[in-house]
Amino acid sequence: MRNLILIILYALIGLLDNFAFGRIAESLEKDTLLVPTVVRRNVLTDERISIKPHTDTIGDDAEISRFAIPSVLIGYGLVTPLIPGLKNIDYSTKRMVNRHIHRRMRIDDFIQYAPAVGVYALEFAGLTPTHNLKQRTLVMATSHLLMGAVVQGMKHSFKVQRPDGSNYKSFPSGHTATAFVGAHILHREYKDECPWIGVAGYAVATTTGIFRVLNKKHWVSDVLTGAGIGILSTEMGYLLLPKVENWFRTASIAKGVKIQRVSYEDGDGVRLTYKF
Known about the structure:
The protein is mainly α. About 65% of the residues lie in helices and about 10% in strands.
């Protein structure tokens, strides 16, 4: 089962990376077509020669980073058990927390949902999101479905003990993944209105991860991987939006569909059910 989860995760990362480079190549091709053509005439033969000027072929770094950053975060958690230096970061952080933190602060149980709430609340404040209410809800549901499936699958496959020793469901952090799904949607929806909205969302999501470590529920590698899964799941949610929309447009299918919130031990998710 553990190997199956790894294969699915690597395939997901590879799919998104290929999608990113495909988008860049498509963009470059379009840009090249827009370059004006210089027409010169050969004075000896009266033949017209078309010459296209040299074009720069450097890709869009932002397009690549959309997928590279979460891939690196997930990779960090996967290789941590194999690299002593990374394992030492986990254990040294735990020792520091044990010395200075002696009570649990439950703020992380609540603020993990704040970015997702902001996705809807900011529209009432007069800001204009990129997608309409239905589209945002479909992206939110799809992203949480993917995130929940990956997080719960990895928890039951890797069986990493929590820093407080309470159980073996530490890796990865579901709270952090939930927070980063909301934060990344917040960024994608309002980045054109105000880039600082996304920054605020990521700050709240990062705070969620920090408190998971301070509360001795997760290792540093757990929260970094959770953040990567949250961002990557959201990118998949946007990538699949056209297909999900087409599916929901069919009235006979949509009638029996229900989207429900479900609670797990380490966070919440979304359940999609269909009544025949």
